[in-house]
Amino acid sequence: MADVLALIDANNFYASCEQAFDPALIGRPVVVLSNNDGCVVSRSSEARQLGIGMGKPYFQIAGQLASHGVVVRSSNYALYGDMSQRLMSSLEPFVAELEVYSIDEAFARLPRPRCGDLSSWAAELRSRIRHNLGLPIAIGLAPSKVLAKVANRIAKGDRCHAGVFDLGREINPDPWLEQTPVEEIWGVGRQLGRWCRLRGIANARQLRDMASGELRAKAGVVGLRLQLELQGVSCLPLEEGPTAKRETCVSRSFSRPITDAGELRQAVASYVVRAAEKLRHQRQCSGRLTVFARTSPFSPGFYSQAAGTSLPVASNDTAVLLQAALPLVALIYRPHKRFAKAGVLLQDLQSQEQLQHHLLAPLPEAEQQRRADLMQRIDGLNRRYGRGTVQWAACGLTPGWMMRREQLSRAATTRLADLPTAWAR
DNA sequence: TCTGGGGTCCTAGGACCC
DNA sequence: TCTGGGGTCCTAGGACCC
Question: Does residue A186 contact residue A213 with C-beta atoms inside 8 Å?
Fold first, then answer.
């Protein structure tokens, strides 16, 4: 029989991770906040039932959360990243091919058995993940990625599906597509969603059946692919293995506005340091660097500016990137502007191994090797003893703008001192 | 006072070339 | 004074994703 595509994801991933390491939270409403404790990015089902909205700014609903006794956590990416790796490696033995799509979801391909029924396979997978990681997962099965997403949504929505739904086994999928609002389809965003509604296209079945010429005029080939996928024609391939990144970005909001040029420089310097680390970890070099900063879009007099420069030779050496980036800060800085966020974007990424040595290389071979060794040592020390153990002077010593994480849980799986403790009586 | 961060893909339009 | 057609490459910006 033909292969099946699956979309497997963890329910309320961040909130579920918090619950997995603090059993006292199970059954209680829990929300996890974005960086800087900005807004809600994950809710346990109990929190959802209380009507707490996704993406709501924390400062607007702090009172409501307190009055309902909601547990609030800052996001703990060290923990979630590690749990994600465990989840993905647990899925692997259950499928033929796996594409890790995001921190909490994966597409997979598997053969459909002769009897056609995958429910025992799915039940076994769910109970294994629940038992080993303490995470609830949902599984959607269908002939294409977009339909697998639809199926996953149905699996989550209805209790009687027990976290699994196989759209490929439905003789008539239309009722299921009709109960899927057009905005909920993977690939339909705000613009396309509004456009569909204006034309009376309200659900997935109607989008599937609409005139393709009209859709093409609005959404181009992306729209056509989307429609084919809804018809059960798989045209988005499964991508195994990490594809090389084309760009890498590090940006953060500040815990308080910055008006001082020196502080903005320090912030940009720290982001460059982090971005260079990421680059070396990806074994890539960057040929172009852009620095940007903006004030709050929620305040009058919004200001946003970017400045970029090309490097004579692509590099992942922190000192080289800092040297390129810091002069750009003066170009985007404006006195009296209250900067809320800044960042650095590394573009023109090339693989470190394939990087052709420039004829006018700024440093002789031996010196380049020495620099590469130095970067490796610094990365090693920071990995072992914690980020910031070896720091660059340009970043400043006591930044007052560092992000806020006031309700952080422990790094229970990645830092020895944070190992959970079990008490016995 | 306080509103996330990090990506990809596609298209339109300008510059430039023959 | 008249001023084509077709191609490539690059960039900016829109749209979308989690």
Answer: no
Does the pLDDT at position A356 exceed 70?
A: no
The distance from CA A16 to its chain's CA centroid, rounded to whole angstroms, is: 16
Residue closest to A369 by CA, chosen among A317, A310, A313: A317
Contact A256/A39 with Cβ under 8 angstroms? no
Q: A217-276 pLDDT, tens per residue?
A: 899 999 999 999 999 999 899 988 777 888 999 999 998 899 999 999 999 999 999 999
Å between CA of A50 and C1' of B8: 35
CB atoms within 10 A of CB A125: 23
Question: CA A253 – C1' B5 distance (Å)?
Answer: 9
C-alpha dihedral over A125, A126, A127, A131, to 10 degrees? 100
- Would the CA dihedral through A388, A279, A79, A72 be positive or negative? positive
- A153/A351: higher pLDDT: A153
> Considering the entire predicted model, what is its pTM?
0.92
Give the CA-to-C1' distance from A275 to B5 in angstroms.
Answer: 13
Q: Which nucleotides of B are covered by protein (CB under 7 A)?
A: 1-11
Q: Give pLDDT tens digits for A291-303.
A: 999 999 888 888 8
Nucleotides of C under 7 A from a protein CB: 12, 14-18
pLDDT at A353: 79
Average per-residue pLDDT for chain A: 90
Sheet holding A164-166, edge to edge: A97-102, A105-111, A3-10, A137-142, A164-166
Give φ, ψ of A16 to 5 degrees.
Answer: -65, -35
A126: left (phi over 0), alpha (psi -120 to 50) or beta: alpha
**Mean pLDDT across A94-99:** 96
C-alpha A75/C-alpha A58 separation (Å) is: 13
Q: What is the CA radius of gyration of chain A?
A: 24
